[in-house]
Design the sequence.
């Protein structure tokens, strides 16, 4: 496996390079967000490990630009930012996995090897086929959702909810399932919070030609307007 480690902490970078090299992983490294994309393209890694706090350019900006350029390499975010909100933002930006610091090296290796098995086959680096519902387009590589050619400006929770519905157009998704995906691990939040996200998202979809429909007792679905 060939790994690109984008990490600005010198001691962490050295320790990971040594430990992973002993486990048969070829590690290239980068310490600056501004140089990360060029090295990503040059190295052509099987997996990228990306820290969020980088000099020059934030890790999320690096990831967003990489996905826009069609770099579909699996990405594991490795960072001290361990809140649920940070995880959601990272995954919505296009990350494939998330491991907060401090972490267990065996778990890191297992996650990296799992991601390497998901690497796109040769000739498919452009990533999955976009999902369309009416005039909405979901780019699975980047996680972004477009209305025609304009990115919809959504909060992380609105984006998580819409991503769930857009892959199942015309099929209802229960409030309970949406709650698990939009508020993961937030035991102190009530199920009714999903209704607030739905209300705000419905307003943002008002002029897209796609309606977010409530089916009592079943959940929510997307429907293309007649």
Sequence:
């Amino acid at each position: 496996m060939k790994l690109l480690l984008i990490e600005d902490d010198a001691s962490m970078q050295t320790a990971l390079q040594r430990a992973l090299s002993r486990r048969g992983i070829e590690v290239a490294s980068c310490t600056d967000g501004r140089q990360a994309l060029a090295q990503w393209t040059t190295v052509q890694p099987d997996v990228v490990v990306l820290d969020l706090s980088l000099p020059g350019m934030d890790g999320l900006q690096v990831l967003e630009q990489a996905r826009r350029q069609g770099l579909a390499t699996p990405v594991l975010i490795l960072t001290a930012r361990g809140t649920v909100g940070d995880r959601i933002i990272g995954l919505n930006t296009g990350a494939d996995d998330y491991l907060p610091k401090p972490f267990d090296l065996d778990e890191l290796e297992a996650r990296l090897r799992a991601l390497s098995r998901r690497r796109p086959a040769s000739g498919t680096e452009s990533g999955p086929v976009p999902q369309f519902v009416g005039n909405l387009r979901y780019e699975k590589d980047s996680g972004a959702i477009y209305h025609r050619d304009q990115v919809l400006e959504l909060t992380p929770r609105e984006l998580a909810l819409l991503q769930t519905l857009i892959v199942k157009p015309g099929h209802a998704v229960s409030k309970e399932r949406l709650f698990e995906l939009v508020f993961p691990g937030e035991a102190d939040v009530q199920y009714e919070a999903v209704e607030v996200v739905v209300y705000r998202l419905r307003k943002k979809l008002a002029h897209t030609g796609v309606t977010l429909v409530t089916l009592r007792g079943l959940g929510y679905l997307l429907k293309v307007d007649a």
